[in-house]
Design goal:
This protein is of the alpha+beta class and 641 residues long. Among the domains are: 75 residues, ACT domain (Alpha-Beta Plaits); 248 residues, DHBP synthase (Alpha-Beta Complex). Strands 5, 6, 7, 8, 9, 10, 11, 12, 13, 14, 15 and 16 form a twelve-stranded mixed β-sheet that branches. Helix 12 crosses helix 13 and helix 14 runs parallel beside helix 16. It starts with a strand and ends with a helix.
Length: 641
């Protein structure tokens, strides 16, 4: 007889499964743990004396996860006679698990206030990887030999077993804190604690601190310095809901082991005034550096600070650094409401990964490659590999280089579209879909090939005033009225004519006179709207493609009529939602497609996505599961074009 624990896991990543296996091995429990079909299944031999203790440890210490949902248990006749093994180890960049956080804050631990604390299943491990296989000699830690205690841990079953970058104060990495006048070093518990006390005090006093964390450089500062590019880091879990209006799912997502960035609504009026918005991008401390900084700031009565991703050259009042090379990844940004969760953008957690059925093909997109690895495909940064033998290479348009004698070029929207079909195993089924990253495009998969039905129309800013004037009869008066009644906007449009590569929603933000000239700025402005419905923005199609000029002209016309930027921003996404749904439903009917597919980062927008959810309620769209819906997913979809 066996006891079975089944957990719903909506990701192909193995970090939660491996954590369970590590705890089981620590208690030397005979079990078999597998992960497939969106579930982790742990089968335990039920006649083991320590099984209740092991199950209790799993219940207490298993990290919360974005992708971990329901659980159930039952009895089975299956036979189990050995310890489970962790297969195919590769590092991820994650937050710290509960046990590592506890160890780092335990005064009796040899890792007390040691910011590089981690285990084989948590922490910023990927940042230190240089090449595969994942061994200490192929990481930045190769210059530091583990002490006897750390070495013993690495050879004992449990969370530190085979942990290539295991270290502590006795064998670990010293950290330097300096400014233009003085410097100090930390290499033991006392000096590390003092260092974080100094940094916390400096931040409270209004100083900027550039910190090299295990996940990359971050520029920290007090909330009074928050601006349009800032992310808000909440430090006190018990007070998060005092400052933010969160649904339950958002609260638990912030504290999950994946530690995503969320776009959430502010409750704190002081924060609203400082950020000039009702919403902000928010996260909770993830690695040892930010957690220890948060602990010290809480002692000073600080509940949150601002930060932004940075590099080593950014100016600051204080610098915290260490002499190890790291390869940071872009942060995980998640879209979340009560009904759905998907990854909007970012590299962390999605890469590296082993997933999908193996093909004898090399896929190259942006800085990532997909290559055969046993029965599956391995996706990771190109720099970690030397060579691979395959039949052909699929290379994203714009990636320079010849990688194979049989090399095909793939397009971003087609590759992203195909990545969703691959993740949902929808091969052979007819699908229609939309890709929305800057300009929209519409695609069709007939079960074998992917076709662009409505290709994107590249936005050209250099002739925008001329194109508006020639849009239709009388449109020249619109340009005249802009010059006369909106002189500041007119001057910006004139300056834009001399710039290259201005994106469509940068132009929208410019027209709305927002501080943040980007899609992010327009999204935040839309979230200020508290009415029941917006106005109809022109979504005309010209030459079988979305008409950028008509779209912008409509916005300008409403501005001249005195419509506020907030109503306009909301109305843009509401109208886009109707436009996408109308086209997709029409294409679905004409092609007799089974599924609708959505991809592209611009769909990670509450105003737009909520509208589409309502309109597509009877036919919910397919979206990426384990990979971002934006450009990063092209390395996956490129394999199947």
């Amino acid at each position: 007889m066996a006891f079975v624990l089944e957990l719903e896991m909506r990701s192909s990543q193995q970090h939660i499964k491996n954590y369970i296996i590590s705890l089981i091995r620590q208690f030397r429990i005979k079990a078999k743990v597998t992960q497939q079909d969106n579930a982790i299944v742990a089968v335990f031999a039920s006649d083991q004396e320590r099984l209740p203790v092991c199950l209790d440890a799993i219940a207490q210490h298993l990290p919360a996860s974005l992708f971990l949902k329901n659980s159930r248990s039952y009895l089975s006749e299956e036979h189990v006679d050995s310890l489970p093994e962790i297969i195919d180890r590769y590092p991820l960049n994650l937050g710290l698990c509960p046990l590592c956080q506890k160890e780092m804050l335990d005064v009796s631990s040899r890792r007390y206030y040691y910011p590089f604390t981690s285990c084989s299943c948590c922490g910023g491990n990927y940042s230190f990887l240089k090449a595969y296989p994942y061994e200490r000699e192929r990481t930045s830690f190769k210059f530091f030999s583990p002490c006897d205690s750390c070495n013993e841990e690495m050879h004992c079953v449990g969370l530190k077993e085979n942990h290539p970058i295991n270290s502590c104060h006795h064998c670990g990495v010293p950290v330097r804190l300096y400014n233009h006048i003085s410097e100090r070093y930390a290499n033991d518990a006392g000096s590390f604690r003092t260092m974080f006390e100094v940094v916390a005090k400096a931040l409270k006093d209004g100083k900027k601190v550039l910190m090299k964390t295990t996940l990359g450089y971050r520029l920290f500062y007090a909330y009074s310095m928050i601006h349009v590019s800032s992310t808000l880091m909440m430090l006190n879990a018990s007070k998060i809901t005092d400052h933010l209006s969160l649904i339950t799912e958002e609260f638990y997502a912030l504290l999950s082991i994946e530690r995503p960035i969320l776009h959430v609504t502010l409750k704190n009026e002081e924060l609203k005034q400082q950020s000039n918005a009702n919403t902000m991008y928010v996260k909770y401390p993830d690695d040892g550096f930010s957690i220890l900084l948060g602990v010290e700031l809480q002692k000073l009565g600080v509940d949150y600070i601002g930060y932004e991703e940075a590099d080593a050259d950014v100016e600051a009042d204080l610098y915290m650094d260490y002499d190890l090379d790291i390869t940071p990844q872009s942060d995980l940004r998640v879209f979340l409401n009560k009904e759905i969760l998907f990854i909007a953008e970012g590299e962390r957690v999605s890469f590296p990964s082993v997933a999908l059925k193996s093909r004898n093909v090399l896929s190259i997109a942006h800085k990532y490659i997909g290559m055969p690895y046993g029965q599956e495909m391995f996706f990771d940064q190109m720099e970690h590999f030397e060579s691979v033998t395959v039949e052909k290479a699929q290379v994203l348009e714009g990636v320079a280089g010849i990688f194979h004698s049989r090399q095909n070029t793939v397009l971003q929207d087609e590759a992203s579209f195909m990545s969703v079909i691959a993740e949902h195993h929808a091969f052979g089924r007819k699908c229609v879909g939309a890709y929305f990253e800057n300009e929209p495009s519409f695609l069709y998969y007939d079960g074998k090939r992917t076709l662009r039905i409505i290709p994107p129309k590249p936005f050209e800013a250099s002739t925008i005033l001329e194109e508006i004037a020639n849009l239709r009869e009388g449109s020249d008066r619109l340009v005249h009225n802009i010059e006369k009644r909106m002189p500041q906007v007119y001057e910006k449009l004139k300056r834009v004519e001399h710039k290259k590569q201005v994106k469509l929603f940068e132009m929208v933000a410019l027209l709305l006179e927002l501080d943040d000239i980007s899609m992010r700025g327009v999204t935040k402005e839309a979230m200020k709207f508290i009415g029941k419905g917006g106005i109809q923005i022109d979504m005309r199609i010209a030459d079988n493609r979305f008409d950028n000029v008509a779209f912008l002209s409509s916005i300008i016309s409403y501005q001249l009529a005195g419509v506020s930027s907030t109503i306009l921003a909301y109305s843009i996404f509401e109208s886009l939602g109707d436009y996408f749904c109308e086209i997709l439903q029409e294409l679905k009917a004409k092609t007799q497609a089974v599924d609708i597919v959505l991809c592209g980062t611009h769909f990670a927008n509450q105003s737009l996505f909520s509208r589409m959810q309502r309109n597509l309620k009877m036919n919910p769209p397919l979206i990426n599961l384990s990979y971002p819906i934006g450009g990063e997913n092209a390395v996956v979809g490129g394999l199947y074009l």
